[in-house]
Structures are given as structure tokens and as C-alpha cells.
Amino acid sequence: MPPSLTHALPAIQPEDAGARLFLFGVRQMGAHGLQDAAAAHAFITAFGKSFRRPLVLMRLLVQELSTASAQPIQIAPWCCRRMTGPEAALLGAVGHARHNRRAAAYLLADMLGVGDAGIAVGPLAAATAVAQAFADYGLPLEGAMSGASDEIWPGNVSPESFQPNP
């Protein structure tokens, strides 16, 4: 029996504009390179004159993920209304990065296949910077994946079960 669509693309894309822009940037840069013009145009449209900081930090995040990953990171086409597991985990990690770094680190380590959250320091720093830039310019990413963690984290483990940083 072939795997179902919900197996390959387990999470529905959030309705949040910031989350959609983030996901579009990741997909475009992941598929077409860090200098992708469509991603840059989307950031210019969303952030106006303040587009540089979020765009450069998004490029940094994609580069850090590429460097740190021990396995391929599956991404869906930009037009897909559903997300792959790694995309949903990344969006969840960025959503937690500013207020619950421990949960973000575990999500990133799991997505990257590195096993140890301490190895994901570079991607975690980049994810935190991206989350801060999006929040500073009016598109916060916190809560973008609310309700979707059950689709990504089977069983009794979820990012919400980790205590926030003191």
C-alpha cells in the first residue's frame, strides 16, 4: 500500500502571514539557492525598506541548517498547502526560539538528525535571530504552529512539555 499524502505531508500550512512568508523563504532558498530572487521579492513586499535584516538572517538560517544537518531535509514545493515533517518542526522551532530555547533546540536537533541538542547551536542562534527580526517588523512567528505539534510529535512528547528557559 503506497503511503498517503498525510504521511508524506503531515501538517497543514498555517494561516499566519509571517509563518507563510517564513515557509516560502525556506522552500525557495532550499530549492533554488540562497540568492533566490523570488524569496528576496517576497521579503521586500512583506517588510518594505526593512527587508534586509530578515532576508539576510533567513539566508543564514538556511545555510546553518544545510551545514549542520546529518540527513536530507525534506521540503515541499512552494505552492503546497501542506508541510513536510521537517518543515513543520523547523517552523515550530523558530516559533519557540525566542521564549523556549530548550524546546527549539530539541526540535532542531531532531529535524537535523544530530541526536544532541548541543550540536544545533548554530541553527538555534540563527532561528532565534530570524524569529526576533520577524517579530521586530510585525510578523511574529510564535504560535504559528499551535495545534500542529500533535501531528509532528507522536505520543506523549511535545515541545510544550519542555520547560521554558529560566
Description of the molecule:
Helix content is 55%, strand content 2%. The protein is built from 8 helices and 2 strands. Strands 1-2 form a two-stranded antiparallel ribbon. α5 crosses α7 (121-136).
Arrangement of strands in the largest sheet: 1-2
Low-pLDDT runs = 147-157
Q: How many alpha or pi helices? A: 8
* SS-derived structural category: mainly alpha
Helix content: 55-70%
Question: β content, as a range?
Answer: under 5%
Number of strands: 2
Rg, rounded, reads 15 Å
Based on CA inertia axes, which overall geometry fits? globular
| Helix/strand order | HEHHHEHHHH
Distance between the termini: 48 Å
Describe the main β-sheet briefly: 2 strands, antiparallel
On the 0 to 100 scale, the average pLDDT is 86
**Oligomer class:** single chain
What's the short version?
The chain is an all-alpha fold and 166 residues long.
Offer a few descriptive terms.
2 strands, single chain, mainly alpha, two-stranded antiparallel sheet, 8 helices, 166 residues
What's the helix and strand layout?
Elements (H helix, E strand, L loop, with lengths): L4 H4 L2 E2 L4 H16 L4 H11 L4 H17 L13 E2 L1 H12 L4 H12 L8 H16 L12 H4 L14
Antiparallel strand pairs: 1-2
Helix pairs in contact: 2-3, 2-4, 4-7, 5-6, 5-7, 6-7
